[in-house]
Structure formats: structure tokens, C-alpha cells
Amino acid sequence: MDKKSFSVIFSLVALLVITTPVFAAGAAALEHANVNIRDTAAIQRGAKLFVNYCLSCHSASYMRYNRLAEDLGLDEELVMENLVFADVKIGETMDIAMRPADAEAWLGAAPPDLSLISRSRGADWLYTYLLTFYQDASGGWNNQLLPNASMPHVLWQMQGIQKPVYATHDGVESIDHLVLAEPGLQSPEEYKDSMRDLATFAEYLGEPAKIKRKNVGVWVLMFMALFALLSYLLKAEYWRDVH
Ligand code: HEC
Hints:
binds heme C, single chain, 243 residues, alpha+beta
């Protein structure tokens, strides 16, 4: 290796070493949702949770109900019956009736559209956010990932009530972990599964074409494998005469 390429490689490695802890620090607090975009049943369960618990405040205005039906292999009538509560038609987008100005007055902040939340924040962020609501000393809701969030814990009956346990590091008091002070309708494991479903739905929402793309990808790989095999056999056939 000459001197120049050595120094290039050296600086690349150095850059990696320097930047790694920065990324790691930002991501350290996130729990892994391990979403599987091909798990259609999980997306369906997540969609149901979304329309029941989130759509009253958050829209998903890039998604149409009929697209949802098609992608999830659901009958349109079934979607109308199970997922559409508002007075809307199958071809409409997942919008809300609340006006942003009213929402801001009632809640302190306008609930953002969640169509692209998995892209802006990531599925793991959403998953962790939904796991880390707690009741603070004043009896109000707060969130460990988004401190002083204006969103109430809309799933508290499902999860139960978490309370913070504080610890002091270097003279600074901060939340060490959360404990389940009052159990909810679901066990902690069940609640995590439900939030994984919601995060899976959000991942799908962020890029509906992903399911199709991944399926196409498998066929492309299978084609390439077959093509490689055929090319090899062809090569062997040609070279038999040469030898
Ligand atoms: C009562 C209305 C309401 C409901 C219901 C609700 N939210 Fe929210 N949500 C809010 C408000 C208000 C904010 C803005 C919080 C802030 O910025 O302080 C918010 C913020 C969020 C954010 C953070 C967005 C960001 O990038 O900062 C996410 C993610 C979110 N909500 C997900 C959900 C999910 C998932 C559900 C259903 C389980 C849900 N919300 C139900 C009102 C609501």
C-alpha cells in the first residue's frame, strides 16, 4: 500500500471512530421495534389501533382507505365496516374533522399528520414514544422521549399507569426508568406487541410501496440466482470442447 492510499484509509477509519459515539448517543435510548413490513396481519392490527386511538387527533392524509384495503388484501366493505367511523367514502384520505387551530387551543399544540412519521422519526422512535408515557408528580401525562409533550397518553387503559424513578448522576437528577404503578388491560408484553403493530402500520404508511418493492426484490434475486446457474452451465458446456 502506498503512502497516499494509506492516509486516505486512515482518515476514513478515524472519521468513523470519531462519529460513531455521536450516533450511538442519540440512539441509545430507543427501543427496537423490529417491525416487519411484510407482516400484513400486524399492519392490519396497527391500522385498527390507529383509527381507534389516533385518527381522532392525527390525520394520515397521504393514505386513502381503498389503497389500504388493496395493500392489506382486505375487502373494501370490511374496511368500511371496521376502520371507517367517520362519514367518508372509501376513496377518501384518512383525514380528521378537527381544525388545527381548535386542536392547538384545546391541546396546546396541533397534532401533526402522521403519514410520514416513520420517515421523519423512525419506527423505533414511535415505538419507544408509545412505551414511555408516564404520570408525573402533578398527575398529568408526560413522555420520556418527548418531554412535556402536549399529547395525553391515549392508551393508558391498555398499558396502565407508569411512574418515573429518578436517579442522580453528577449532581443532575433525571429519570432512571419507569415502573408500572397500575397495571392496564394488557400485560407489558402484550402492550409491546400492540405498539409494534402500530409502528409496523406507521412504517407501511410512510412508504406503502415498500411491501411491493420487497416482494419484487425477492423475485429479482431468484432470477439472478437462476441466471448465474444457467451462465455457469453454459460456460461449462463451451469449455468442455476446448479442453
Ligand atoms: C387527544 C389528541 C391526540 C390523540 C388521540 C393522539 N395524539 Fe399524538 N399528539 C397529539 C398532540 C397535541 C401532539 C403534539 C405534541 C407536542 O408536540 O407537544 C402529538 C404528538 C404525537 C407524536 C410526535 C410527533 C413528533 O414528531 O413530534 C406522535 C408520534 C404521535 N403523537 C403519535 C400518536 C399515536 C400513534 C396516537 C394513537 C395511539 C396518537 N398520537 C393519539 C395529540 C393526540
